[in-house]
Specification:
The chain is α+β, with helices and mostly antiparallel strands and 110 residues long. The protein contains three helices and five strands, in the order H-H-H-E-E-E-E-E. It is elongated, with a radius of gyration of 21 Å.
């Protein structure tokens, strides 16, 4: 007679696939085309970016690989020269930003 532990042991080889579900859900993300900003949207975005500083709380929708993602949190790093921003683990180019809002600059929300 097999104990429950012995019966469960037969399924151990499948434990190597533990992250497979997460990987498959990432692959299931629908591809999206990158949107081109209008000239006035780009000007508004540049104005907001110029006013931001590390520590400012923001919400950003940005393009990553083949779809848009949203990041919310405090700015860790913002570099106007390299045109890059980092928010609590998410790092992206300014050109990838679709929308941006900041609690410290509510009038500039776009």
């Amino acid at each position: 007679m097999h104990s429950e532990a012995n019966r469960a042991r037969q399924y151990l080889p499948f434990a190597a696939l533990k992250g497979l579900g997460n990987l498959m859900s990432l692959a299931a993300v629908e591809r999206q085309e990158r949107c081109q900003l209008l000239e006035e949207e780009e000007e508004s975005l540049n104005r907001i970016l110029a006013s931001l500083e590390p520590g400012d709380p923001v919400s950003v929708v940005y393009y990553r690989r083949d779809h848009y993602e949203q990041a919310e949190g405090s700015i860790v790093r913002i570099d106007a020269r390299s045109r890059r921003m980092e928010i609590d683990g998410a790092s992206f180019d300014f050109r990838d930003i679709r929308s941006l809002s900041s609690a410290n600059h509510p009038d500039d929300a776009w």
